[in-house]
Specification:
This protein is of the alpha+beta class. The chain has twelve helices and 36 strands. 20% of the residues lie in helices and 24% in strands.
């Protein structure tokens, strides 16, 4: 057996080579070096750090179980805070406190800390090493050929967002979304949680308007090659001393935004989210709840298969869209003055990304290739079977997907499809904690036996919708780096590395491998816990009833311990309104809310169930056809928007007025419209 001490780093050789300096990549490199391995970190672009240093400065770990996210993730954040305090500034947050508070930082600080940690670990960092090909001896990679040199190592780590090294090595992979039946995932296939916009998506010649991706969504239960939208995270400021005007887009064509004008006229939300940062800065992000935002829906579909020139073209297309969207928001007469004025105060930061004209160098690749490896993480591993025998990390970000396509219907209407709103605990708002098994970062041994894949790991689209967060990738990357160093030291295949040996070193480097006991998991018995649902959920058990009602659990799934029904089969006499179920609640904040209803659809249900909402001076009535199924994979159906007042009692009443057939009352849900 060859040991590290017998061989140092010579030229373009090392014990471990990491391709891609994403958060997983740079953590893998640091972790391997701390195990005594010589390490080269190759980055295809000239930007090191991926999204951690590229504008994603509002750390998403506030939705995670932070006590389970330690190791290099925690150390990195502690050093970010120390960077501030060493300069006599206030700590922007406190990494030692494992609550749900926001952790935010400036990109330049993130870059400084990242490069310091790489340098201290002795990692050799080389940029602009775009992968061309690999050479192999059987299942073993022998060299990695880039446009600027050939590199050899005993073990390789694919730290790229796209799984480029994995694909070049002949490892099986997939792209896009699985059909629901493939892994038995209710959140697979097509997802329609957003309201259909009452606008025309075609021009006068019958062609799709710009920014609409298709008029054929495909089967609801079927898979496709669509990925969630890409965008930039914009580091912006209103501070006149640090503000650089947003560049004007070249060749701006106002016609590109005709669909957005129609949406604004119909009252649709348009814009992007802004998160406060230290230094009087703001992190601009694509709005997961919005209809038109910073995400170029459909724009990243060919990213994974494009070569270097092709990716630069796609990158520029996303930048062009970003500049055009900002220009539209701040200048177009169709945009309300209040919105124009809000975004017009913003600009880029003089002290950020100076060598890139102050615009972020990192495109937010939320999802790309996914390996088909030794174990596939799917929905059941997150929500039903979280414990594994070979854990290397604990993931706990909610299942959360941005839009995948925008569809125009021939008969009218446009809808964004693919969003999965956060599937998480209600209090606190955390995702469900689950193990990431070592097998999920391993290729099948016959395909490659000296490669680890911590980013484009083996999982479904639903799985990556939870795994796809920088904090999770940092801890998986650290574990991959440790495994790579151990395999290189023993000259073993990565699949043969004894797990107990790996586990010992993971714990020594500060990883947490025991699942926390705080998580409450959704029921798999057909009962959906109210605690797992977002917003305000009103269960039938809390309704005030008049008339004749019965309780049932026959139709599954249902919210809580069952549902109520009123009526009899085959009776066509219309109801007289004397049977009712009323929910009473005081909402915490005045404003507009989305009203949703849970019921079990069936042909015996009433087609015109009235729902009346009264809140202070506001009253609104809706009619629900309970023969119509809920949106696929969803527990609630959107009914409409309502204006609610805090400080007064809001009443939501379901009656049998003029109904024929069964009325079902399972649960009602209220979601603030701006979330």
């Amino acid at each position: 057996m060859t040991t590290f001490s017998q061989k140092g780093m010579a030229g373009n050789e090392a014990d471990v080579i990491v391709y891609g300096s994403t958060p997983a990549g740079f953590c893998a490199a640091i972790a391997a070096a701390r195990e005594g391995a010589t390490v080269i970190l190759l980055e295809p672009t000239d930007h090191v750090g991926g999204m951690n240093t590229g504008g994603l400065s509002h750390c998403d770990s506030n939705q995670m179980v932070r006590s389970a996210v330690r190791g290099l993730f925690e150390e990195w954040h502690m050093r970010v805070v120390k960077d501030y305090t060493d300069r006599g500034l206030n700590a922007p947050y406190f990494p030692g406190v494992k609550d749900q508070s926001l952790w935010t930082f400036e990109p330049n600080v993130a870059m400084r800390v990242t490069m310091q940690m790489l340098d201290e670990a002795g990692v050799r960092v080389l940029t602009e090493r775009y992968l061309k090909s690999v050479t192999k001896d059987g299942p073993r990679i022998t060299s990695l050929i880039t446009k600027n040199g050939t590199f050899t190592a005993r073990v390789y780590v694919d730290g790229s967002y796209e799984g480029d090294l994995m694909a070049a090595a002949g490892v099986n992979w997939t792209i896009g979304r699985e059909e629901r039946a493939e892994y038995g995932e209710s959140l697979a296939g097509k997802q329609y949680p957003k309201q259909k916009m009452n606008i025309n998506g075609f021009d006068e010649q019958g062609n799709l308007l710009p920014l609409v991706t298709t008029d054929d969504a495909g089967a609801e239960e079927g898979g496709d090659s669509n990925v969630m939208t890409y965008s930039f995270r914009l580091c912006m400021t209103e501070d006149p001393d640090n503000r650089i005007p947003m560049p004007a887009p070249s060749n701006y064509d106002p016609a590109r935004f005709e669909i957005v004008r129609r949406a604004l006229k119909a009252g649709v939300r348009v814009g992007f989210d802004l998160y406060p940062l230290p230094g009087d800065k703001l992190d601009g992000n694509n709005s997961i709840g919005g209809q038109f935002s910073l995400g170029l829906v459909g724009g990243g579909k060919e990213w994974h298969s494009a070569d270097e020139a092709g990716r630069k073209k796609i990158w520029e297309a996303h930048k062009q869209y970003t500049l055009e969207f900002y220009h539209f928001l701040t200048t177009d007469p169709a945009v309300p003055v209040s919105i124009r004025n809000r975004y017009s105060t913003l600009g880029l930061c003089k002290d950020e990304f100076a060598s890139y004209d102050h615009f972020s160098p990192a495109l937010y690749v939320r999802e790309s290739r996914r390996m088909k490896g030794m174990y596939v993480i799917s929905q059941k591993d997150i929500l039903e079977e979280p414990e594994k025998d070979d854990p290397i990390a604990i993931s706990s970000f909610p299942i959360d997907s941005h839009d995948c396509q925008r569809i125009a219907f021939e008969g009218g209407g446009v809808i964004n499809e693919g969003t999965i709103y956060p599937v998480r605990r209600k209090n606190p708002k955390q995702g469900y904690a689950y193990h990431v098994p070592y097998r999920s970062i391993l290729p099948r041994p016959e395909q490659c036996d000296n490669l680890l894949v911590p980013v484009a790991l083996s999982c479904s689209h639903v799985g990556i919708s939870s795994l796809r967060i920088e904090g999770t990738w940092m801890i998986i990357g650290q574990s991959a780096g440790i495994a790579a160093a151990l395999a290189a030291q023993s000259d073993a295949t990565v699949q043969e590395l004894p797990y107990l040996q790996l586990r010992k070193r993971l714990l020594a480097q500060g990883q947490v491998l025991e699942l926390p006991d705080v998580s409450e998991y959704p029921s798999t018995t057909g009962s959906i816990s109210l605690k797992t649902l977002p917003g305000i959920v009103l269960d039938d058990a809390n309704a005030m009833l008049t008339g004749e009602w019965s309780h049932s659990t026959n139709f599954k799934p249902h919210i809580g311990n069952g549902y109520l029904f009123s009526g009899k089969p085959g009776i066509k006499t219309k109801g007289d309104g004397s049977t009712s179920a009323t929910f009473r609640i005081n909402v915490p904040k005045s404003g507009e809310y989305q009203l949703l209803m849970s019921y079990s659809a069936h042909e015996t249900r009433a087609t015109n169930v009235p729902v009346i909402v009264i809140s202070g001076s506001h009253e609104k009535e809706f009619t629900v056809d309970q023969t119509k199924p809920l949106p696929s994979g969803q527990h609630f159906k959107f009914i409409g928007n309502v204006q609610l007042e805090s400080g007064v009692e809001t009443m939501i009443t379901i009656r049998n007025s003029q109904t024929a057939g069964f009325i079902i009352v399972d649960a009602m849900q209220l979601l603030p419209k701006d979330e």
